[in-house]
Input
Amino acid sequence: MQPSDFKRKYRFKSSNSNDRWSYTIAIVISIIAFLVIWLCF
Output
């Protein structure tokens, strides 16, 4: 995933509060995934 795609998705999703909530969930999932990988290795 390119940084430009990340910013474009953020701008697109922040237009709607419901979509912003799903964006927040995606951040939490990515943090949990990072912690799992970090703890396993």
